[in-house]
Design a protein that fits this description.
3 helices; globular; 2 strands
């Protein structure tokens, strides 16, 4: 079975655009505010079907993948 997606490891790796939230057909992603009021995605593992659409739509993940190639 596939692992759960990891949207970011550090907050600096997420711009908070909510594209992952918008693309999730299972409503498994919610946007949570941190102590400074910035919104970051959080995955509900009980709802997540591991389709990885959230990873595919992420501008930051795709930008970094292009740089690392």
């Amino acid at each position: 079975m596939k692992k759960y997606p990891i949207l970011f490891k550090n907050k600096q790796d997420c711009c908070g655009c909510s594209a992952c939230y918008a693309v999730c057909s299972q409503n498994a992603i919610t946007m949570k505010s941190d102590e400074e009021g910035f919104d970051y995605p959080e995955i509900d593992k009980e709802k997540c079907v591991r389709c990885y659409q959230c990873i595919r739509v992420c501008y930051i993940n795709n930008f970094n993948a292009e740089i690392n190639e």
